[in-house]
Amino acid sequence: MELDAGPKAMLEIERATHRYGDLTALDNVSLSARQGEFLTILGESGSGKTTLLRIISGLEQPTQVDRLTIGGENVVGIPPSRRNCTTVFQSYALFPHMTVAENIAYGLIVRGVAREDARAQASRALETVRLPGFEDRRISQLSGGQKQRVAIARAIVTRPAVLLLDEPLGALDERLRVNMQNELTDLQRQLKTTFVYITHSQEEALAMSDRIVLMRSGRIEQLGTPSELFDLPTSAFAAEFMGFENLLPGTVRSIERDLVGVELDGGVQVAGVAANPGALSVGDRATIAIRAERLSHSEAPRKQGRRLNTLAGTKVDQRYRGKYSDIEIRTAAGEFKIRSWDNASLPEEISSISWRAEDCVVLTPAVKRSIGKGE
Strand 352-356 to strand 360-363: parallel, antiparallel, or no bridges (unpaired)? Predict the structure, then answer.
């Protein structure tokens, strides 16, 4: 599966495979990133995303690759120091015995830049990451967020064609992580540099990316814009990984363009949209996927759609989550989860649930595949 990067591809990989003994960590992956694109590689632990980044950076030599170019240059067999890319790690990898300015200027000095010029460029890089005047600070004097900015400044000061970021926000607390997401996207737009960002966080991927590559077991499961992965997953794995809480099996009974009629187990008839209409036929087993927040405990909010699905149901559980409440509803087709952001208006009793056909994705195959835990 290959990303169509158009005429200005800054990074191109064709049919890369990497094995660790009998384990295939990367399986015939092709990938491209455009000039100035924020491309996120998303996946669970063991999906191959970090192996892919290490192959791009040169820290791993692939078992096999047909083509690997950065900025149009073939870098197969070229060591990391000679590739026009830089990596920002989660651990920061800053030198504790050096000042902030010395850390940032180090890569320039190694490349033969005079120390005075290197320090001047380090100062400009600090201004770019909003840390002016930090040149003479020691690394031990910095907060976690400041260390991350220094690591980014050190990476961008050499003006790489591609900036690789390996879970760079993983060590930060939640509030700082959200702030750094905004700062990174602002910085990327300012620099117009190609960013390749590795994460297991759907939230980070959706908030920051131009496009997302979802990896699974060393292969690309789905690629597309954030809205495509969020609203229209193409597999049960992608749906569950991207936060679809309701996945129920059934059988396809009708197909009218992209509107698919499905009989859920239990004999309930519903309608949804097909992520890949050409992959479905009448009589096929399928899975419907619906986000909990797209379900309603009444018909009124959902009548604007082409078709409203309604099921009789009974509330069996309700959990308060602060900003929202999760409600479990038992129906003839199985249990559904509703997420309500208006806790004040929740009724004591619920007799039915409804959702628009546009909010229901019909997928194949029907068997829901489990997802591993975290990184």
Answer: unpaired
